[in-house]
Amino acid sequence: MSFHRRQFLVGGTVAAAALLGPRVAFAQTAAPSGPFKLDPLPYKNDALAPHIDAKTMEIHHDRHHQAYVNNLNAALKDHSQVAQMSLKDILAKLSEMPEAIRTAVRNNGGGHANHTMFWQVMGPNGGAPSGALAEAIQRDLGGLDKLKSDFNGAGGRVFGSGWVFVTVTRDGKLAIESKPNQDTPLMDGKMVLFGNDVWEHAYYLTYQNRRPDYLAAWWNVVNWGKVGERYAAATAGTLAI
């Protein structure tokens, strides 16, 4: 075989591989089936603009949160007993989870719980805390202005990625705490009233590295009506995640 003949055949093979390669590399696989699913946002992607932009909401919900759900379902695929539990119970009993899946459940179960709460406590018409919730904020956290200041401070001190939360007890007492990564107070047997995501993917497109600006702006999209409903559920013992 001549050199030119060999060169043509090799070149043709490479070209064919180049055409076929991307189809294999970027093939979409179906999300693993399982007990957990991603609910749609309760508002449009652009509903929280300009405080949180539409592209951030799309990426955050449709990609990041979906990945947590997919990974959680994948982790539980061979653990039917765990798959039958509620997410709240799984996280509260994290130390009892099979060692082989404990880290995956912690990261992805925590991510699913945190984000499910997060979408619920935001909205385009935030209003203001009222009734028993407002009284609890005044009593336990020194009022709304001090809550915002202390909450933002705690969120700003999270090193790297994590969350800042307001927790609530069955008797209605409030407290602020922060957690790294996708950890949640649910892992300590506590209830979460509301919280804010301080991972960079939650704010970087608009705020870049200015996390304090994001934390301050976020209060404009807190849905206090929904937070009030969660407070009532917590004191009734029915608040899940």
The run of helices and strands is HHHHHHHEEEHHH
Coarse structural class: mainly alpha
Number of strands: 3
Strand order of the largest sheet: 2-1-3
Average residue-wise pLDDT: 90
Provide the low-confidence segments as ranges: 1-29
The N- to C-terminal Cα distance equals: 70 Å
From the structure provided, what is the oligomeric state, counting identical versus distinct chains? single chain
**Radius of gyration (Å):** 23 Å
Number of helices: 10
Strand content: 5-15%
- Helix share, percent: 40-55%
- Principal-axis shape: globular
Give your account of this protein's structure.
The protein has 241 residues and is mainly α. 52% of the residues lie in helices and 9% in strands. It is built from ten helices and three strands. The chain has a three-stranded antiparallel β-sheet, with helices on both faces. Helix 2 runs antiparallel to helix 5 (99-120) and helix 7 packs antiparallel against helix 9. The model is unreliable at 1-29 (pLDDT under 50).
Write a concise synopsis of the structure shown.
By secondary structure, the protein is mainly alpha-helical. The protein has helices at 3-25, 54-75, 80-83, 87-92, 99-120, 131-141, 144-156, 204-207, 211-218, 224-236; strands at residues 162-168, 174-180, 191-197.
